[in-house]
Fold this protein.
Amino acid sequence: MLNPVLATVLLMIAYTRLKALAFGTDGLAYVLQSFSCGTPLYSLWSSAVARASAPTPTPTPTPNPELISPPARFGAGDAALSILECGILTWGLKLSQCRRQIFSAAGLAVLALCAAAAAANVLLSALLARAIGLRAPEALAFAARCTTLALAKPATEAVAGNAVVNATLVVGNGVLGQLMYPLVLGRLGVVAGPSPSPQSSHGADLDHRSWVVRDTGASDDEEDDPVVIAAGVAIGINGAAMGVSYLYEAKSRAAPYAALAMTVFGVMTVVFTTVEPFKGILINLASR
């Protein structure tokens, strides 16, 4: 069955191209601009509140007022992006349900590992992309390829990267991951159904029922296997929100570690692409 994200992308491409045919030569640019004007929802709210509370200024005659201050437009793409940007907060609710795993030795190790992995990914991805001949904007787009779109967008814009290439990489990571997770994780035993034999979870049998979270909010004193933790970290870093969603849907014990890894990795990626001196180092590597 076709992946829902991939299906949505293909439908939107077909829709925008067909609609552009009705507007002539420059129809595609007009349709895309109307679809996503770059106006965030919070700016509309802030502007509305400011206009309501501020005194009415004395009008100044101008040749064409609309050219001086064009009205803000809010397209369907802006609405979708506003919802997507709020999605990162929902993972905080999931993390609060898994406090035992987070505030443990394994959780602290995940924090340190994801911070180091974010630094390595930001610098090495841009360096390797530049080494294979990509221009600086395309190379910089690779720096935030493993985060959610809500975090990848500001990270890419901060270093003047190619936003289209970055979005393609982010969505591609998620789609390919969801196609491969059932096969790979099933072989590792990280996502498995209840086993009829109630053997000890410290054995080699990875199909034991303890590898499945019966209730994500339940308290469980059992220590998680290193394979489960490693799988969660790998999916959180590489698969981002789509990978974490899959683990929660499968009720895997790796899900809390994946959510933690995704959050820390994404936040640190933004830090390394927006804060000096990391930002300057990254731009220099991609401009060589």
About this structure: The CA atoms of residues 186 and 231 lie 11 Å apart. The mean pLDDT is 75. The two ends are 43 Å apart (CA to CA).
